UniProtKB/TrEMBL annotation:
The lineage of its organism: Bacteria, Bacillati, Bacillota, Clostridia, Peptostreptococcales. GO terms for cellular component: plasma membrane. GO terms for biological process: response to antibiotic. InterPro entries: MATE_fam, MATE_MepA-like, MATE_MepA_subfamily, MdtK-like. It is found in: Cell membrane. This is Multidrug export protein MepA. Keywords: Antibiotic resistance, Cell membrane, Membrane, Transmembrane, Transmembrane helix, Transport.
Length: 449
């Protein structure tokens, strides 16, 4: 593939992938806007307290989505469409069963889950109301995202953005009706999100049942070797999502200790903005991964390196743009969620957001490097980056820095974590730029394990 053809192929995947992530992030932000303006800052804090549970559910979906996408893309790169269909069917059945199991375990334990997440007497009822609606929709959350990733791996990225957009419009309309017109509060936000994910799930399933898919639902065959390979391949990306929930968990406790509930509401605003940035980087990553996996299947290392270079350039441009917007329009962004009349929370959020947004310059590079290792099935390296970046470093810095620098230490801790993680990621990448050999080594080690 020449440079022109490579760019065309990359942008064919990039634009729908990033657009899908933007739409997903924006309609998540819309939930926060309606809750913040229609119910109040305390309700917004409660939704943010609930987020780690949703991150865990989403992370389990990523576990199967990325693992299945990588293995399916490699199989199609080798021309083995029968195996691709078998892997698709098997992973679909496993994910559906997992979603039902999570719902069955969680639905009767709302108060315990809310307490563990950090809800207190002020936010407890809001958290229970929100999770009480979200939990029954867990299967649709998980399967909808999984099918979106597989639709793109199947070669239909435009179809993915179509149904993500349909879900987003549905969520926005229902947020307005349920919160602003019916006065359902956080329950209305949860119902709007759950129904939109149900619609998205049905739309993506129609592609594989009635569409022109290269993958078909077949009689399920559960091969333990394939299951372990799929889980191990997707695990680093799942850890990235789990780590978001863990990060929110540590931040919430640190903020409650040093600032109070107003700080949690301010952090909620930052996490909505952070979600848009991170999802944009994940969109670039998702454009890269199926192409890298495909060319690894063909043992075309030059094309793999070319795709990686294009990904880094895209991340650099997006990072600078997001950082500039965050500095210049911090007040306007905060005002989308918190009214200026709540002057203390508004000013706290605006100043903290300008500090926190420094992390936007770095996070995308870590996501791309980890995603590259996943796509080439260098699982141990990808897992190390995800674990160190999202769990270990955040836990260390958000605990220690506030002791030395107070509030400033809380808001700068994510930037410091990303900087240290990037040093580790760049060092690992410089030592491993032979995809074909790495695929063989990791595949062999996975099989041995």
């Amino acid at each position: 593939m020449g440079k022109t053809g490579m760019k065309r192929k990359f942008f064919k995947f990039l634009l729908p992938s990033v657009s899908a992530m933007w739409v997903f992030s924006i309609y998540t932000m819309v939930d926060g806007m309606f809750v913040g303006k229609g119910v109040g800052p305390t309700a917004l804090a409660a939704v943010n307290i609930s987020m780690p549970f949703i991150n865990i559910v989403f992370g389990i979906s990523l576990l199967m989505s990325i693992g299945a996408s990588t293995m399916v893309s490699m199989s199609m790169g080798k021309g083995d469409f029968k195996r691709a269909s078998r892997l698709f069917t098997m992973s679909s059945m496993i994910l559906c069963g997992t979603g039902l199991l999570i719902t069955a375990i969680s639905v009767g334990r709302l108060e315990g889950i809310a307490t563990f997440l950090g809800a207190d007497s002020v936010t407890m009822d809001y958290v229970k109301d929100y999770l009480g609606i979200i939990i029954p929709f867990c299967s649709f959350f998980m399967v909808a995202y999984y099918l979106e990733v597989l639709v793109k791996a199947d070669g239909f990225p435009r179809y993915a953005i179509l149904f993500v957009s349909v879900a987003a419009i549905t969520n926005l309309a229902l947020d307005y009706v349920f919160i602003m017109k019916f006065g359902w509060g956080v329950r209305g936000a949860a119902w709007a999100t759950g129904i939109s994910q149900l619609i998205s799930c049905i739309g993506f399933m129609a592609h594989f049942v009635m569409g022109r898919s290269n993958m078909k639902l077949t009689r399920p065959v559960f091969d333990m070797g394939d299951i372990l390979a799929m889980v191990s391949t997707g695990f680093p990306e799942a850890v990235t999502e789990f780590s978001t929930g863990i990060m929110v968990y540590f931040f919430n406790f640190s903020i409650l200790r040093h600032i109070g509930e107003d700080g949690v509401a301010a952090f909620g605003v930052m996490m909505y903005a952070n979600s848009l940035v991170v999802m944009s980087m994940i969109g670039i990553n998702q454009a890269m991964q199926p192409l890298v996996s495909f060319f690894c299947g063909r043992r075309d290392s030059e094309s793999v390196k070319g795709i990686l270079r294009l990904s880094f350039k895209s991340v650099a441009a997006a990072s600078i743009l997001f950082a500039l917007i965050s500095q210049v329009f911090a007040g306007e962004i905060v005002e989308l969620f918190i009214s200026r009349s709540d002057s203390h929370i508004y000013e706290l959020s605006k100043g903290a957001f300008r500090i926190f947004s420094a992390s936007f310059l770095i996070c995308g590079f870590n996501i791309i490097i980890s995603g590259y290792f996943t796509a080439t099935r260098q699982v141990k390296r990808a897992l190390l980056i995800s674990s160190v970046r999202g769990i270990a470093l955040v836990a260390i810095f958000v605990t220690l820095l506030p002791m030395a620098f107070g509030e400033f230490g809380i808001w700068i801790s994510l930037f410091v974590s990303e900087i240290v993680a990037l040093g580790i990621s760049a060092w690992m990448l410089s030592r491993s730029m032979m995809p074909a050999d790495s695929v063989q080594r990791d595949a062999k080690s996975t099989k041995t394990a």
